[in-house]
Hints:
The complex is a heterodimer of chains A (95) and B (104). Chain A has 95 residues and is mainly α.
Amino acid sequence: MNYLALNIVFMLIAFVILNVFVRKSPWKLIGWTLLVMVLVTLIFDNVIVALGIVDYDTTKISGLVLGLVPIEDFAYTVVSVLAVSAIWHKLTKEK
Amino acid sequence: MQFAYLAGLIFSIIGLGLFDWRFKLGFSTNKKAAALATLLPLIFFLIWDGAGIALGIFFRGETSHLTGILVAPELPIEELFFLFLLNYTTLTIFITVKRIVAKR
């Protein structure tokens, strides 16, 4: 299995769990948060790949990169934004 | 500098914590919600990491910046701190965005 297929499996699992958990998501807030987090990830991830902290099997990634970072890595950012935002929003909503 | 990456992660988490308390963001306003919002996704990411490692997609780099302490095969202790930092950064930004949108 390659990285893209792995991500699709885990993103689907995350979406199903989150859909059971929260019904109404604050999409506007999530959209802005995602935009900022993609930029943060782009910088941070490039640094850790450049430092050799993480490495990839080049036969299992799509080859699409942003700087040094395989585009697949951004799946973690997407799920982090959806999951953290949804859980926080749900638990702190005014009754 | 085998502690460089771990130190950088801890430094960043402490920095976020200071922002949190100074501007009353996440843990400083609702510890339980902040803990669940950061730790539940962290557990999910660890399973995701484990699958990626088991499939040989990504692995620990050959570098002198890691402590070498592993919590599972190819999974350095630094990854726990990284995943917490990822989710804590998301939480901090989400709450900040919410505040900005509410003010307008």
